[in-house]
Design a protein that fits this description.
Layout (H helix, E strand, L loop, with lengths): L6 E8 L2 H13 L5 E4 L7 H5 L6 H27 L16 H23 L23 E6 L7 H10 L4 E6 L1
Antiparallel strand pairs: 1-3, 1-4, 2-3
Helix pairs in contact: 3-4
Length: 179
Amino acid sequence: MADKTSIHGLVADFDSPDKLMDAIRAARKAGYTKMEAYTPFPIHGIDDAMGAKPSILGYLVLCGSAVGLTIAVLLQWWTGAVDYPLVIAGKPFFALEPSVPIMFELTVLLSAFVAVFGMIGLNGLPKLYHAIFNYSGYRGITDDRFVLVIEAADREFDATATRDFLAAQGADKLELIEA
């Protein structure tokens, strides 16, 4: 049998989302924590079943929007009141009301940049290669197959015991994939 460092994990292929969800719940109950599911469409509740932690992306976007708003206010205040003050009909050098569109635009702009680049960074993209490509049936994942991969890095992973466990969960096909 291949040693634990040269394999990525064990792939279990299921023919329905219900069987996949049952296998995920059973795997979590059995103590497996390092696993990934691949499906052709989103499945409601799969994140909770796998024990996925909530993303911090929303907090990053909130920080980006606060920075955008701050930059907009400071830029307009500095330009109108400090760097190039113009006295026009007794109006103040800086007023909040005409600044609102610029504040909105910079808030949205920086929020969008943080959302896009934060998502790319948190997802580890671009990733041109993944071990799941070594699975013989990986093309079916985007079509009609539901796959659960229990990684070899999991402390509970044992190739034979994990294979027996996933077979008992009703997997149609089991395959050990290389890293």
